[in-house]
Automatic annotation (TrEMBL):
The lineage of its organism: Bacteria, Pseudomonadati, Pseudomonadota, Alphaproteobacteria, Rhodobacterales. Its EC number is 3.1.3.25. SUPFAM superfamilies: Carbohydrate phosphatase (SSF56655). It comes from the Bacteria. Gene3D superfamilies: 3.40.190.80, Fructose-1,6-Bisphosphatase, subunit A, domain 1 (3.30.540.10). This is Myo-inositol-1(Or 4)-monophosphatase. It comes from Yoonia ponticola. It holds the Pfam family Inositol_P.
Amino acid sequence: MQGTDLDLLIATAKASGEIARGFVDVAPKVWEKGGGAGPVTEADLAVNELMASDLQTARPDYGWLSEETEDDMARLERQRQFIVDPIDGTRAFIDGSRDWAHALAVLEDGLVTCAVVYLPMRDLMYTASHGGGAFLNGEPIKVSQKTDLDGATVLSNKASFADEIWAAGAPPIGVTRKFRSSLAYRLSLAAQGRFDAMMIIRPSWEWDIAAGALIVAEAGGDVTDQTGAPLRFNNPHPQVNGVVAGSPITSKLRDAFATSTVEARLPNT
């Protein structure tokens, strides 16, 4: 397949959407992965097969990291990698929600160079390339410019705003319970300015985060782990230390957050 890496990701996302939509009304088979890793459906596996074939055939020198493929540590020896989540938000997919996504990214030396988050049931195509801006269905998007935590809207889960895990109690955020199963979609909504920020305060898998992180950054947003450190990907253990992303309020969210109590008190996000 010819064209840029971003062209390749867009074409593969569209083809993945066609496959996934074919399972929407037929009650796909579902299995539990074990170890608390959650469910996987035959749709996830079918999309993963398509992505692996199309992307690796087009760029055979790139490494590969996918939620639905056994990790091959040879990826660490490659300069560039694909990192994908065939269906981000599998539980939403199983439940008949429209809020699941295909998340695809290309990495170079641990940094994301281009990314796509595609919601086929909503026909939403978020795209970004390093230095090239972020777009929704071809139109530029920008993060919110909110600077005050008071009344800010943050995408997370209810447990993330329990008073006991914040140094001085939960901040005065107006909407604290807005939730989307797909982390890639949460990041994209923050990039679009629909919400002022999103946050995840548990270690998070790279395939859930990489594509959306670039989209937020290219939309003018701030993206770090929960401590304020920059995100780097293609780690031997492919997780990052949570994510705080979006408008200028992100630094205030990080400052207000008491990290020492997280592991003891929070379920997986």
